[in-house]
Design brief:
- This protein is mostly helical.
- It has helices spanning 3-8, 18-35, 45-52, 56-63, 66-86, 93-110, 112-120, 127-149, 156-178, 184-205, 213-216.
- 72% of the residues lie in helices and 0% in strands.
- It is elongated, with a radius of gyration of 19 Å.
C-alpha cells in the first residue's frame, strides 16, 4: 500500500466537500507543528485539542483516533518528501541527487519526532509506519539510481548496495538531529561522499552498473 492509498483511507467518512477537506488539511497542519518535536506518547488528545483550539470530537470525526490522526500527519508530511525526491527531473542527475539529500536532511531536522517514528518503525511492529518508511526508502533509492545510472530500475546488487547506504543515512541522521554538531551543509556533503564509496563498491561487484566518473576517481560525486 502506498502513501496515497493510505491517505485515502483516512479521509472524512462523510461530507467530502471542499470545506471538510480544507478543515482536515488545517488540522493536519496544526498537528505537524504540535508533533514536530514532541513524541506521540507525550501529547494526549486533550492536549492536542486544547493547543489546536478545537473540540476533541472534531479530531475523532476526521481521523477516528489519536493514532489515526498521527498517522495522517506522518503520511502527509512524508508524501511531500517523496514527491520532492521524485521531482526535479529538469535538473542534471547529480544535482537532483544533491537536492534530494539536502531535502531529506531538512525534513528530518524540522520533523524530528515524526522522523524518529518512521525510522524506528513505530511502537513494536507497526505495519503502517513500516510501509511509510519503505516508501521513503524506495523513493530515495530510485532517485540515487537515476542520478548515478540514468535509470531507476537496477539489478538486485545495485539496489541492495544503495539501500544499505540509505539505511546508513537513517542512522547517521538520527544521531545528527539528536546532537547536531555539524551544519546541515557539512552533513549533506559527508553523505554525498559516502555515496561515492558505495557506488564504487557496486561497480567493482557489478560492472554493468559503472559509477559516475567523479565517484570512480574518488572525487566528490556531485562536483
Amino acid at each position: 500500500m502506498n502513501i496515497s492509498q493510505q491517505r485515502a483511507g483516512t479521509r472524512p467518512r462523510a461530507r467530502g466537500t471542499e470545506r471538510s477537506l480544507a478543515r482536515r488539511a488545517e488540522l493536519i497542519a496544526i498537528g505537524r507543528r504540535l508533533f514536530a518535536d514532541t513524541s506521540y506518547d507525550a501529547l494526549s488528545m486533550d492536549d492536542i485539542a486544547r493547543q489546536a483550539h478545537v473540540a476533541k470530537g472534531l479530531i475523532y470525526y476526521y481521523f477516528g483516533s489519536k493514532r489515526g490522526y498521527y498517522l495522517a500527519i506522518i503520511q502527509d508530511s512524508v508524501a511531500g518528501l517523496v514527491a520532492f525526491a521524485a521531482s526535479g527531473l529538469d535538473l542534471p542527475p547529480v544535482d537532483r541527487v544533491h537536492r534530494t539529500i539536502d531535502g531529506y536532511l531538512r525534513y528530518a531536522e524540522h520533523n524530528q519526532a515524526a522522523y524518529r517514528t518512521i525510522v524506528s518503525g513505530g511502537v513494536g511492529f507497526d505495519a503502517e509506519v513500516h510501509a511509510i518508511r519503505d516508501e521513503v526508502r524506495e523513493a530515495i533509492v530510485t532517485t540515487i539510481a537515476e542520478g548515478a545510472y540514468g535509470r531507476g530500475d537496477v539489478g538486485p546488487l545495485a539496489r541492495t548496495g544503495l539501500l544499505s547506504w540509505v539505511c546508513g543515512v537513517e542512522g547517521a541522521t538520527l544521531d545528527w538531529i539528536g546532537c547536531p554538531r555539524l551544519p546541515r551543509e557539512t552533513m549533506r556533503d559527508l553523505l554525498v561522499r559516502t555515496l561515492g564509496g558505495t557506488l564504487r563498491a557496486i561497480e567493482e561487484m557489478d560492472p554493468s552498473c559503472p559509477a559516475p566518473a567523479p565517484a570512480r576517481r574518488g572525487e566528490h560525486f556531485l562536483k
